[in-house]
Automatic annotation (TrEMBL):
Domain spans labelled HMA: 2-68
SUPFAM superfamilies: HMA, heavy metal-associated domain (SSF55008)
Alphabetical list of Gene3D superfamilies matching this protein: 3.30.70.100
Protein name: Copper chaperone CopZ
Organism: Gracilibacillus ureilyticus
CDD domains: HMA
UniProt KW keywords: Metal-binding
Gene Ontology molecular function: metal ion binding
Signal peptide start and end residues: none
Pfam families documented for this protein: HMA
Amino acid sequence: MITTKFQLEPLTCPSCIKKIEAKLGNMEGVNEVKVLFNSSKVKATYNEEDTSKEKLQEMIVKLGYSVIG
């Protein structure tokens, strides 16, 4: 298992958290996702055999959020 973190553009509403956590959490290989509203950070733990940091970032962008770090 690998844990990675992403910095997002500032989130504008608490429902953004649920949206991101639900979509990433349902991806194959993702074990845990935590989104912090105040800091706009995402922490994800995943199995590198099933997914990658790049795939997680792609999903975040598809949801309409910008990854900045």
